[in-house]
Design brief:
about 300 residues, SH3 type barrels, Alpha-Beta Plaits, 5-stranded antiparallel β-sheet, 3-stranded antiparallel β-sheet
């Protein structure tokens, strides 16, 4: 029995297969151990996720290198075959090659990372995974109003970073400028209205000031960009119908909906508390005459019913 086993392992192919199995087992066990170790070391969920993805990628790369090293003799002719058919393979796999190049660009050029809110390939949502070929996005919007998830997970090819603009709502500056327009009647106390809205805006959005300033300073250090107005403010505009008070402010990219809800609630309460000094304006339509055809039809109907 031992002689048969020795004879079996004297075959170069069997020996290489055994070495390959042993090497793959070592790589698999090591990757599992490193993933568990990273889960204990890393505190932030995003960093922990990225470490596990990196370990998996390195494990696949090590497995590929091991296979190439073990079967170097038998795979020596593969390069020649691929060289002959290189043009056809490149044409057939151009989308795959583009996605792999996009994967490298995403990480090295910092287009976006897991957790960012982006618009990619016409899809808007939060990035939940970045694989070698595709980016997985949890979509927001569509049939759901506001910045809420609609339940769809969309996988977009990484090659789209070369084909279309990449909108990152939370990259170097994780804040957005937003606004609310409040129309009030022209005969209202607009000074009081502006004062009330300014107090509400400062009370709700003033806590963002330091954090926004710090993020914007990093932007100005990295890019050639002018100083922007970061504190909340109100613009007034009026016409023959009403006075429009526009509240502009900087808000966290994930808090647009909840922030507007709080602002609208407080604004409505403040306007009601003025007891008519400030009133919301609305459009009204008044019909002063019926169309000509309507008069004609009424006339013919009445003349036809006469005896």
């Amino acid at each position: 029995m031992l002689d048969q086993i020795k004879t079996l392992f004297q075959d170069p192919l069997i020996l290489k297969i055994a070495m390959l199995i042993l090497g793959l087992a070592v790589i698999w066990v090591s990757s599992r151990f490193l993933k568990r170790l990273s889960g204990r070391i890393a505190k932030e969920r995003a960093f922990k996720f990225q470490m596990r993805k990196t370990i998996s990628f390195l494990a696949y790369l090590a497995s590929f290198i091991l296979i190439m090293a073990v079967f170097n003799v038998r795979l020596s002719g593969l390069g020649v075959a691929l060289g002959v058919a290189g043009a056809g393979i490149a044409f057939a796999l151009q989308e795959v090659i583009g996605s792999i190049a996009g994967y490298l660009a995403i990480h090295f050029a910092h287009f976006y990372k897991v957790g960012d809110r982006v618009k990619l390939g016409g899809i808007k949502g939060d990035v939940i995974d970045i694989s070698v070929l595709r980016t997985t996005i949890m979509e927001i919007g569509d049939w759901v109003s506001g910045d809420l998830y609609n339940g769809k997970m969309v996988r977009v090819a990484n090659s789209f970073v070369f084909k279309e603009p990449v909108f990152n709502y939370s990259g170097d500056f994780p804040f957005l400028w937003d606004e609310i327009i409040i129309p009030i009647k022209t005969d209202c106390d607009y000074v009081l209205a502006r004062k009330l809205l300014t107090e509400i805006l400062q009370d709700e959005m003033g806590n963002y000031a330091k954090e926004v300033e710090a993020s914007w300073k990093k932007m100005t250090d990295q890019y050639q960009i002018e100083k922007a107005r970061l504190e909340p403010w109100i613009n007034m505009r009026f016409d023959e119908n009403w006075i429009s008070l526009t509240l502009r402010y900087v808000v966290d990219f994930k808090s647009r909906g909840s922030t507007k809800d709080r602002l609208f609630s407080r604004i409505l309460e403040a306007i009601r508390a003025t007891e008519g000094k400030v009133q919301i304006a609305s459009a009204a339509m008044e019909i002063t005459a019926f169309p000509h055809q309507r008069h004609s039809s009424l006339g013919s109907s009445s003349s036809g019913s006469a005896p």
